[in-house]
Each structure stands twice: as structure tokens, then as C-alpha cells.
Amino acid sequence: MLGLVLPAVAEPQFGLPLNCPSDSICPIQQFVDVDAGSDARDPWCGTQTYDGHKGTDFRVLSMQEVKTGVEVVAMADGVVKARRDGMADRLVSSAEDREAISSRECGNGLVLDHGNGLETQYCHLRQGSLKPASGAKVAKGQVLGLVGASGMAAFPHVHVTLRRNGKVIDPFTGLGIGDACSAEAAGSAAGGWLDAEAASVLGEPGLPTVLAAGFFDGPVDDGQLVRTGVPAPPDRSAQALVGYIWVINLRKGDRVSLRIERDGEIFARQTTEPLDRSKAVYVAYAGKKGAPAPGRYRLEAGVVRQGETILVRNAELQFR
User: Fold this and answer.
1) Name one Pfam family in it (predicted).
2) Counting C-beta atoms within 10 Å of the first and last residue's C-beta, which end of the chain has fewer, N or C?
3) Which residues neighbour 112 within 8 Å (Cβ) at sequence distance 6 or greater?
């Protein structure tokens, strides 16, 4: 008697969890922490994670993008297993903030069941933006809601966790918590669960990403930038001229250099001291007080690692 042979069920290929606007960037700020102990290691043995982080964080620049609306989408076909909405979008910056969302760190979000023990969880969505109801079927790429800052969110982003039979899996490499990271595989998504488009956003893990670089009329910091967004350049009425760089995922020992020229002559320059620890986000600036004189100003901002400049961004501004 011949047995019934069932066709193999293809494993899903997961897509990106958000539709990034064409005029912006949506970089990955943190990956899964694959270290099972008290240390923190991303899948490539780097520092782009923190202890106990169980997902991948795709960020938007600031709360201005949250107001505009950036769509969070299903990474694969599935069914809504659970959902929560109604929590305010509020950047966490203090112990009181953390206490206020205790046990609800995911904020507004949902879980999709993809079958075969696979599920994805989406966290920190914008209040009131969740679309599908519990039990609804959704298709890959279907809009689930909007990026927000609900729950334990120090910056606006969607946190996505991929699980199989309850075990957290890094979607880029397929590694789980407790698996050995691989520095040799840096820049590779081999063994992962993502489709070609999603895997292509990986770039080279370990390299920092510039969120913005430009000019302003005074000192800037991450708190200001993440709340109000990239500032407009100053005009001739400004009482100072500052060049800045806003960057994520710096390593211990990295330095940030800034050089501003006016008509080819040095206007201001600064190189920071080596960082005493890795930094998830960092802002550096240099400049001078006083109304800017007419001329063409050029900013060159870079990240220096072990004596080598690994990243450079330029900006120009002209006053007549």
C-alpha cells in the first residue's frame, strides 16, 4: 500500500517591516542579542545591541516622522494572534517613564502567526494606528499600523521579533539566543529568513550610520533632534554658526571629527576624545558665536576608528 506523500510546505521569506519614505532613512539601530549571559553581542559579535534585546529595531529619524506617518507592514502572510493599542507615544528618558510602562514595554503592537511555529511581533506602533483586528488574515506587505514611540521606546522605531516555536531567531542570520556569533560573517545574511530586498538593507554590521549632518545656529543634542527633527539651516540673523553630525552605533575608541571652512579657510574644527564605551547614538558639533559673515561654508564631519576615517559626510551653506 502506497503511503500518502504530502507536498513540502515552503518556509516563508520575510520582508521588511516598514515602508520607509523615499526622502528619509530607516536604519537598523539594534539587532538581536545572541549572548545568553550578561554580555551583549549582535550576530556578528559586534556591539549593535544591548543585553537581553530580543528583536531588531528599525528606526525613523524623529517624532516628526511619527506625526507624518511611516507604515509598518506584515513581513509575511499570517493571522493576527494578539494586539494592543491605546498607549501614548512618549519617549522614555527617566526611571519614572520606565515605571509608567512596566509590563507593557512593547507598547502598541501585534503578533502575527505564520504557521509552522513561526510568528513575528511588532512593537512601539503609533497610538490609534493599528489596522487589523484580532483573528484577521493579513498578506505580506499589508499595512499593520504606523511607526510610533509607545512603550519602552527611547527613539521612534518598530521593534520586530521573529520566533520559531517560542525561540527568538535573528532574521538576518538565523541565529538564536545562545548560538555563537560570527565576526567572519559580517555583512552576510546567509542562513537568514529574509527575502532578497530585506536582506539587502543589512549593509556592513559594525559601521556607524549618519542620521544627519549640517548647520545650525547653536549647540544641538540627541534629545532635541529626536523630538523636533533635523533643524533648518540658519540665516544671516543667526547669532552663531555650528556644524554638527548625528550618528548611531559608534564603538568604544571611536572619535568624531568636524572641520568647517569658510571660502577655503578654517572657520572651526574639533576632534572628540576616544569614546570610553560604545554609543548607540551620538551628537558632536563645532562652530563659533556671532552672526556669520558672507561666504561659502563647508562642513566635513567624519568618524575615525583606529586611526582611519571610516565615514565622512559633507554639507555646504552660503551667505551672501
Assistant:
1) Peptidase_M23
2) N
3) 74, 75, 76, 78, 79, 80, 81, 119, 120, 121, 122, 138
User: What's the rounded Cα separation, in Å, for the pair 285 and 215?
Assistant: 9
Dump pLDDT digits (tens) for 25-69: 999 999 999 999 999 999 999 999 999 999 999 999 999 999 999
Dihedral class, residue 131 (left if φ above 0, else alpha if ψ from -120 to 50, else beta): alpha
Of 221, 234, 207, the C-alpha closest to 284 is 221
Beta bridge partners of 138: 78
> What's 183's DSSP letter?
G
Joined together, the cell numbers standing for residue 18 give 516598514
Whole-Å CA distances, 297 to 239, 303, 319: 16, 20, 8
Find the distance separating the first CA and the last CA of the chain, reported in whole Å.
Answer: 90
Give the Cβ contact number of residue 136 at 10 Å: 14
Amino acid of residue 260: I
Nearest to 246 by CA among 271, 225, 218: 225
Sheet holding 18-19, edge to edge: 18-19, 71-73, 143-146
How would you write 195-231 as a 3-class SS string? CHHHHCCCCCCCCCEEEEEEEECCCCCHHHHHHHCCC
> Is residue 184 within 8 Å of 223, Cβ to Cβ?
no
Compute the mean pLDDT over every residue in the chain, rounded to the nearest whole number. Answer: 94
Cα separation of 136 and 64, whole Å? Answer: 30
Mean pLDDT of 100-117: 96
Q: What are phi and psi of 224, to 5 degrees?
A: -65, -50
Instruction: Retrieve residue 199's grid coordinates.
Output: 536582506
